[in-house]
């Protein structure tokens, strides 16, 4: 899974929740209520990524929300922060089932094509 896939799958499963802008230096996440940033170079320096949360409309202030070696997890945490509770492991299982469904759909289409040739 990639950060883009995390955002797409959450938006697909629960309706539009967030969008992501990724550059060479950072990942910006915009949810309904908050802004988030992850600096990619943090992993090189500290061997861990830090998720920063911005929710102060009066002052430009980000604070540390979470840390992890898994970018997908941090993107997930940012998006679900202001919404309903979604468990990370359940989310991963839903993603795996989605991929399995796509694989089955692809194989059925291939079988139908082969069967049509006979």
Order of helices and strands: HEEEHEEHH
| Count, helices | 4
The tally of strands reads 5
Radius of gyration equals: 18 Å
Helix content: 40-55%
Mean of pLDDT? 90
* Order of adjacent strands in the largest pleated sheet: 1-2-3-4-5
Task: Tell me the major beta sheet.
Answer: 5 strands, antiparallel
Shape designation: elongated
Number of domains: 2
Category from helices, strands and their pairing: alpha+beta
Description:
This protein has a five-stranded antiparallel beta sheet. 49% of the residues lie in helices and 25% in strands. A hairpin with a 3-residue loop joins strand 1 (18-22) and strand 2. The chain is an alpha+beta fold and 118 residues long. It has helices spanning 3-14, 41-46, 71-80, 88-117, and strands at 18-22, 26-31, 35-39, 49-54, 62-68. The longest helix is centred in the last third of the chain and has 30 residues, at 88-117. It has four helices and five strands. The N and C termini lie far apart (38 Å). The protein folds into two domains: 3-85, no CATH class; 87-118.
Overview in brief:
This protein has 118 residues and is an alpha+beta fold. Helices cover 49% and strands 25% of the residues.
Which features characterize this protein?
118 residues, alpha+beta
List the helices and strands and how they pair.
Layout: H1 3-14, E1 18-22, E2 26-31, E3 35-39, H2 41-46, E4 49-54, E5 62-68, H3 71-80, H4 88-117
Antiparallel strand pairs: 1-2, 2-3, 3-4, 4-5
Helix pairs in contact: 1-3
